[in-house]
Amino acid sequence: MAKIEKIDLIHFTFEVAGLGPDAEGTLGYNPSAQQTLQSFVLKIQDSEGTIGEYCPMHSGKHPAVINQTIPLLPSLIGQDSLAREELYQRYKRRHRHLGGVGYSAIDICLWDLFGKKVGMSIATLLGGFRWDLPAYASTNSGDHNGGLSEPAAYADFAQQCRDLGYRAFKMHCWSDGDPKSEIATIAAVANAVGGDMDLMTDPASHIRTYSDALRVGRACDDHDYYWLEDPLADCGHAPHVHRLLRQKIKTPLLLTEHVRGLEAKSAWITEEATDFLRADPEYDLGITGVMKTAALAEAFGIDVELHSSGPAHRHCMSAIRNSNYYELALVHPKMTNPLPPIYTCGYSDQLEAVSADGTLPVPTGPGLGVTIDTEFLARSEVGRQTFE
Ligand SMILES: [Mg+2]
């Protein structure tokens, strides 16, 4: 048995031009701003010298994520590096008050370690069967700074994404909970690219009342939207109101992005409160947790759509039959995707990474199949913790 014998947690920063806080402190497009973001690389080495490593993409920017991971690391020393199922069960219980988010990067690291030990990609180990994933361009939130600042800007950007190859487009509009601007954007984008692209909208829990959510849902119906995601200010935690909404509109609902873990998501199926399940390896106890969620959805005959972007997401989707689109998040017409420039192998979740046929590739090398840029990391490191 190979035991985990050393863990390095490397904190680093990176700069994003054109990103800044709005009046409420939410980050968005601001052409005169530059934002320093922080993330981390987790490295787990076992007694055979195999190293698994992972850099969270979007989730690593939330300080709460790393602060849930750090307390778990000392107790991993001496554990079987291949016992992912045992560790998933143990840390799910240990973090039961916190939803298990902190274990997610650890599980992804252990999958990378396993793949490197046996010389196979994670997708192959999961039984992956597709290597080009249909993707949707998922926008950054609306702004008031000349980027995505009006419905016509979303329509123009959707056309740009279509011309790059994307066959699907999802918008995140403004955060003021105004259904009128949301509905105007739903119509503007559909009028521009409807018929060419599958369209989704994600109010990101900004709509304040059930009545307003109904209006938004009916606008989606009018324009044949593919799904409506997390419309309401309950933050996607109240199944009852979404069951009511499903009964009133035709557009499929996508919920459970903010519902942590396999068991809690299952209630949304039995309550008939969502059409799609949501899962994210960076939030739902890693690749192990996501694949369990995919099997749960499969058993009920429904689809699971992965939240956000990253190599772990691609390996999971490669092996999930009941999933439609990879989310290329969060793109913008005038700003790069605010992700760490951490890979040297050509891996990219930037807007232009899409192929002309609207797909993105699954890395084929061992483990996650990506190579961390050690020179960038050395330049950008702001702190390190080592456990052994
Ligand atoms: Mg969402």
What keywords describe this structure?
single chain, Enolase-like, domain 1, alpha/beta, TIM Barrel, 388 residues, seven-stranded mixed beta sheet, binds magnesium ion
CATH hierarchy: architecture of the largest domain: Alpha-Beta Barrel
Bound molecules: magnesium ion
CATH class of the largest domain: Alpha Beta
Poorly predicted runs: none
CATH superfamily of the largest domain: Enolase-like C-terminal domain
| Distance linking N and C termini | 17 Å
Number of strands: 13
- Count of the separate structural domains: 2
Kindly estimate the percentage of residues that lie in beta strands according to DSSP: 15-25%
Write down the Rg. 20 Å
Structure commentary:
Helix content is 33%, strand content 22%. Strands 4, 5, 6, 7, 8, 11 and 12 form a seven-stranded mixed sheet that branches. Strands 3-2-1-13 form a four-stranded antiparallel sheet. With 388 residues, the protein is of the alpha/beta class. The longest helix has 15 residues. It has two domains: 141 residues, 2-Layer Sandwich (Enolase-like, domain 1), CATH 3.30.390.10; 234 residues, TIM Barrel. The chain contains twelve helices and 13 strands. The two termini are 17 Å apart. It is globular and about 60 Å long. Bound molecules: magnesium ion (MG). Magnesium ion binds next to loops.
